[in-house]
Design brief:
Blueprint lengths: L3 E4 L2 E4 L12 E2 L11 E5 L5 E4 L1 H7 L3 H4 L14 H13 L1 E9 L5 E13 L2 E8 L5
Antiparallel strand pairs: 1-2, 2-3, 4-5, 4-8, 6-7, 7-8
Length: 137
């Protein structure tokens, strides 16, 4: 049996994601995680990035090698802030959270991002969906 979780336009089949790195995530157009135009990351229980699609690498300005093993604490400006703590609390309590955050990119730019996280899309794996926001967004 395959269970689907819907995140915006992402359909995540839980049963297919049983091993780290062996994940099958598709959007509603049948596009896989790796090929999706949406900026997607997977983090582990230690909040370390364990996978990123090409859209996330382009958006964040990091190579795959540089990004994997990092985590939000390495480049999120709001670490320790009330909004960061609130997102962490919601994530733990209800299994998902969203908020606007500022991240430092690999080339030093500050990015304003709408970040949506979903817990346990696979055992020990959590999905991060990012969208670039502009001051008028």
């Amino acid at each position: 049996m395959v269970f689907l979780f819907m995140l915006g336009c992402l359909a995540i089949p839980f049963a297919a994601m049983t091993e780290p790195g062996a994940h099958d995530i598709w959007d509603d157009n049948g596009v896989r995680f790796d090929e999706s135009p949406r900026a997607l990351l997977l983090v582990d229980d230690s909040y370390r990035y364990v996978d990123a699609n090409n859209a996330a690498l382009r958006l964040l300005g990091f190579s795959r090698e540089a990004l994997l093993g990092m985590g939000p604490k390495d480049h999120l400006e709001q670490i320790g802030s009330a909004e960061y703590e609130d997102m962490g609390r919601r994530f733990k309590e209800v299994g998902e959270a969203a908020g606007l955050y500022r991240l430092k990119s690999g080339d030093g730019r500050t990015l304003a991002l709408l970040v949506h996280t979903v817990a346990n899309v696979a055992p020990g794996r959590h999905l991060v969906d990012m969208e670039l926001r502009t001051p008028s967004s």
